[in-house]
Amino acid sequence: MATQASSATLAGEQHFVTRIGWLRAAVLGANDGVLSTASVIVGVAAANPGAHAVLLSGVAALTAGAMSMAAGEYVSVSSQADSETADLAREAKEQAADPRGEARELAGIYIRRGLTKAMAQEVAAALMAKDALGAHARDELGITEVSTANPVQAALASAASFFVGGVWPVVAVLLAPPTVLLYAVITVSLVVLAALGGAGARAGGARLFPAVVRVVFWGALAMAVTAGVGHLFGVAAA
Fold first, then answer.
1. C-alpha 119: how far from its chain's center?
2. Alpha-carbon dihedral of residues 107, 108, 109, 115, nearest 10 degrees?
3. Is residue 11 part of a domain?
4. How far apart are CA 134 and CA 86, in angstroms?
5. pLDDT per residue over 168-215, tens digit each?
């Protein structure tokens, strides 16, 4: 099947869209790892239960979060892959039953994109002669190798990136003195979130500053809310 990725490679060009699949899973996993783990740690630390309890909560959040991300991503992407497989099977049956009708349908797509009728028919015939299912998958269904779902890859990327992001708040708990533990976790987490926001923007070809501000703002807000909740429960327990 011809793809946008292969076309870009042949042309010697680089397109950021070819990174969307793994970039989305990696950035989402890392950001979620930092934010989820740090929020749990901050919420527990604000209740003043002791350094050991804070560390335990961080390790538990890191482990559970990585497994949750892997399972959730695998199920979600598997559903997408199942839908793509079903669409391709249905398309193959339609082509076997009515190849001329499918050729007219493909030509109609190219006409709507701006080709003349004669040229559209010629292009459709040429593409279907080489790879009929691939042509319809790409131009009718919008399925390419760039967008095709890979459940295992997405699950592993999400779990690994969650762990890579979430381990930093746990490291901060291990290294920071108890008197400044809460502030150390918040500072380290915001710095890592800013770095991830910048890295994601650069890898995706987006603007750096808005991406960094966005992720830092929402990270700070989440930790502030969980710190408030933890403080309230700590006061109530006391």
1. 39
2. 70
3. no
4. 14
5. 999 999 999 988 999 999 999 999 999 988 887 777 677 889 889 999
Burial state string for 28-45 with b = 16 or more CB within 10 A and e = fewer than 16 = bbbbbbbbbbbbbbbbbb
The dihedral formed by the CA atoms of 55, 60, 61 and 65, expressed in degrees to the nearest 10: 150
Query: Looking at residue 17, what is its pLDDT?
Result: 47
Structure tokens at 44: 């527990």
Domain of 143 in residue numbering reads as: 17-237
CB-neighbour burial class of residue 205 (10 A; exposed 0-12, middle 13-18, buried 19+): exposed
Helix (H, G, I), strand (E, B) or coil at 46: helix
Task: Look up the pTM and report it.
Answer: 0.67
Amino acid identity, position 70: A
Q: Is 94 among the domain residues?
A: yes
> How many structural domains comprise the chain?
1
Stretch (H or E) spanning 192: helix 181-204
